[in-house]
Structure formats: structure tokens, C-alpha cells
Amino acid sequence: MNIQMVDLKGQYDKIKEAVNTEIQKCLDNTAYINGPAVKEFQLEFEKYLNVKHVIPCANGTDALQIAMMALDLKPGDEVICPAFTYVATAEVIGLLGLKPVMVDVDPNTFNIEINGLEKYITSKTKAIVPVHLYGQSADMEKIMEFAAKHSLFVIEDNAQAIGSNYTFSDGTVKKTGTIGHIGCTSFFPSKNLGCYGDGGAIMTNDDQLAAKIRMIANHGQEKKYYHKVLGCNSRLDTLQAAVLNVKLQYLDSYSEARNKMAAYYDNHLNVIEGLEIPARSDNSTHVFHQYTLKVKNGKRDVLQKYLSEKNIPSMIYYPLPLYKQEAFEQYVSSDFSLPVTEMLCEEVLSLPIHTEFNQEVSDFVISEINNFFKS
Length: 375
Ligand SMILES: *Cc1c(COP(=O)(O)O)cnc(C)c1O
What we know:
This protein has 375 residues and is α/β, with parallel strands linked by helices. It has two domains: 8-103 and 111-248, Aspartate Aminotransferase, domain 2 (3-Layer(aba) Sandwich), CATH 3.40.640; 251-374, Aspartate Aminotransferase, domain 1 (Alpha-Beta Complex), CATH 3.90.1150. The chain contains eleven helices and 14 strands. The strands form four sheets. A seven-stranded mixed β-sheet has the order 1-9-8-5-4-2-3, with helices on both faces. The chain has a three-stranded antiparallel β-sheet with strand order 12-13-14. α1 crosses α7, α2 (36-49) runs parallel beside α7 and α8 packs parallel to α11. The longest helix is centred in the N-terminal third of the chain and has 22 residues, at 8-29. It is globular, with a radius of gyration of 21 Å. The relative contact order is 0.17. The protein binds pyridoxal-5'-phosphate. Pyridoxal-5'-phosphate (PLP) is lined by residues 59-61, 85-86, 88-89, 131, 157, 159-160, 186, 188, 198, 200. Belongs to the DegT/DnrJ/EryC1 family.
């Protein structure tokens, strides 16, 4: 059995004809840069998300950086973000001369913990970046309230939760990435809406921010060769947009397939002592970018090794808190510590999950996990 974390080949095989046709169209019209597929994707994605503006860009990290650049922050201004996330979230903050203020997460949802955040607020705190980790939304209602109270911008890092719905207490439902002032996402191949290379997008309902973001992503120009601000060159490739135009139509069915696979794991793994299946948030749907277990009693690494000997891949997202990374040394004192983040870095283990459910494979993964805990 050849088991993979993500079965991109199986997925491609089912949409091959449509994808190849769209790619061929791009090759035939040679509009390689900002071709019609890019605009088409922008409009379809705006419709799907029910958001006023989508600004496609080159990747998810660029999306975060451009979002941050659009806010007119000053060097030394502080941006709150979780310490338990992919490096990109905090990296761009530091790159822009801002200070990442790394905070703890909730042990069940893995998302930013809002209670107790007040103590991190200083006169320099200007923004907060919730990350919708593994596929479900952070508690956006509380985050928006907290941000309003302290006049903060909210930038959602939605690279892992595209397609997820968040429900407010008044019943309003919004797609993740469209709730904060700006949302960012990635179309890296293994993401839930992945292209066949790099890609990303920025979302906002604010017309002025949208204009600024579009300008920054395009060398700071609105009119060609007239540059108002220092920007960058960040475009979604036309060929990638062509792929996304096909795959966007399947995004909801892909989320369903991921949920089906997650439910299958849940049903068979929830009985194992020393293992915790992923908790569901009350107010968010889950799109299972990752299916992440908590392995208790210090057994995570031995379980991973055991699975790997059976040719079952698994991943640790993420093994080291951001504040313990050498690159982030300058932002924290040497004894800085966040208890939940540290615990999760020792306990989390993500199993293969994707859109191509195969019962035989899932049964094998489940039976080997059972064997490990029996022995
Ligand atoms: C993947 C990811 C990014 C970065 O996206 P790229 O397209 O790889 O630059 C940012 N934040 C999170 C949480 C991610 O998972």
C-alpha cells in the first residue's frame, strides 16, 4: 500500500479533462500574465466567499505581507498572533519591522485563546492575526469585539480553512477570511483549494483597503509606470488560475470528502485511551485541512516512528513554538513560555487526510494505531 498524506494524483485523475482543457486555453492564447483566467477566478471566488474584493497574489505568505503593508503600521508597532502556527504568519510581521507578540492557543480547538489577551495590549498594539488552524475558524465574534475595543486591525490567516463557515451568535453565517478587515489565503498544492504551484489571495469588504492592496501587489502603481508607494510584484499565475477555476467548483464536495474521512477516523479512534480525536468548535464548520490527534503520555514520537515503520506517513504541525525558533529569539526573553503551545508541540500528530477516501487505507491506518496502543 502506498499511503500519502495528501492524494493529489487521485484527485487530479478525476478532473483531468477539465483541467487540461483550461490549461490548454491559456497556452493557446499566450496570456501568461494576468490572463482572462485570473479575472474569472477573482470574480468566481468573490461570489463563492460572498466578499466584495478578492485580490489574487503569488502565495499565502505574500498575501499576509501585502495585507500588513496596507495598514500603514510604523516600525516597532505590535501585532498579536498565535505562537502555534506556521512560520509565515509571524515571519511577515518581523520582516516589515513590526513586532510579533506571540500568544497562546486553546488546547481543544488549537486556535488563538482570546481570554486573557488584554495583558498583551500596549500603546503600540495595532493588529491581531487569528489563524484558522487545521480547518476550523478561530472565535471570530470574540476577536472582532476585542479588536474593536482596542482599535486593532484583524487580518485572518485563512490558509488552512478555506470554505469553512463561522456562525455568529445572532445567526449570521460568514465564510472564514471575510470576517476581519482583511483575509489571506494560500493555494499551495496541498491546501484545501490548491493549485499546481504557488498561489494566494487577499480578501476584503473595504473598498479603500482593496485599492491599496491591489496597488501594493502591483509595484505600488495604479497607473502603469507611476508608483505611489513601495510595493512588490505578487501575481497569481494565469495557469494556476486556470486550475483553480476548475477546482473551485469542487471545493464544497472536497470539504465533504475530508469530513467523511475525519468522521471515519473519529469513529474508530475515539475509543483509544491516551489518544484525543480533534475537537469541533461550537460556531465553525470544519474543513479538515489536517486531521490532528493529541497523543498523551509522551507517546507521540514513538507512535510516529511505529507508523512510519509500517509505511504510514504522519506529520507534526508544528514541532517547535515560534518563540523558540532561532529566527524569533529577538522578540522574547529566554524564559518566555506558553503552556498550551508547548504541550501541543509535544502531543500533536496529523494523519493522512485528503479528498480521496479509501476505506482499505483508512482501515489499515486505524488498525496499526490500535496495534500500537495494544502492545
Ligand atoms: C500555508 C500557510 C501559509 C503560507 O502560504 P504559502 O502559500 O505557502 O506562502 C501561511 N499561513 C498558514 C497558516 C499556512 O498554513
